Hints:
The protein has seven helices and eight strands; from the N terminus they run ααβββαβαβαβαβαβ. By secondary structure, it is α/β, with parallel strands linked by helices. The radius of gyration is 31 Å and the shape is elongated. Strands 1-2-3-4-5-6-7-8 form an eight-stranded mixed beta sheet, with helices on one face. The protein has one domain (about 55-240): Ribonuclease Inhibitor (Leucine-rich repeat, LRR (right-handed beta-alpha superhelix), Alpha-Beta Horseshoe), CATH 3.80.10.10. The protein starts with 17 loop residues before the first helix and ends in a 14-residue tail after the last strand. It has helices spanning about 20-45, 60-70, 120, 155-160, 180, 205-210, 225-235, and strands at about 70-75, 80-85, 110, 130-135, 170, 190-195, 215-220, 240.
Amino acid sequence: MTRIPSLPEPKRPQRESWGMELAIALSALATLGVLMVVGVWLLNWASKPVLPQLPEGDQDPIVSKFRHVGFEIGRNAENEIQVITTPNPLLVTDKDLALVTGLPNLTVLDLRGTQITDDALAHLTGLPKIEQLYVGGSVVTDTEPTLFHARFTDDAIKPLVELSTLKVLSLAKTDLGDKAIQQLPQLANLEVLFLLGTNVSDDSLDALAQMTSLKELYLQETKITPEGLKKLRTALPETKILPHADAPTEPSAAPE
Length: 256
């Protein structure tokens, strides 16, 4: 009987040592950690607000200071600051408004949505060409669902009425009331006034009626009655007054 030769047993793959497996695992974790750190850094970098860029070599100290606190600045061909807005309003503090004092060519200042107080408005002096000033709470948008009311008292209006060149003034979404409005007739050149969302009532009608230079007056969400609106329209026949007579509770549009 022929004997069948036995086949050699297949060799089992040698298992790597536990030390090698541990080293591989630690290396993978380290790589993952580095990737996570890089990812977080990229996310933070991408989410930083884009600030206006200065031309290379621009050493203007005023512009540098504005950029540092996050203001957005518009300048004319002569490199003079004419427009200041606040793309990140919650970063602005009262002391930052000191940078605005004495800008001779500033025509537009938009501070809507900032959480400044009366102290900040006291810095708005020495602005001989200012024409548009927007202060007060922020407006509701898809990206900013929270509505902020600015923390002003009626005394905050005092430095503003000294800005005799103003043509557009927004005090919308503030707690200003009738006492503040009594001073507004001093602004003889004012053409557009936003008072929507304030505490203004019929007690302000006499003061508002004196503002014959007004072309537009926004009074939505105030305490002025329909009867008061009717009287005001009689006193200011050439002024566009909102809300309309047939819609006294009409929601307001944000000032542009």
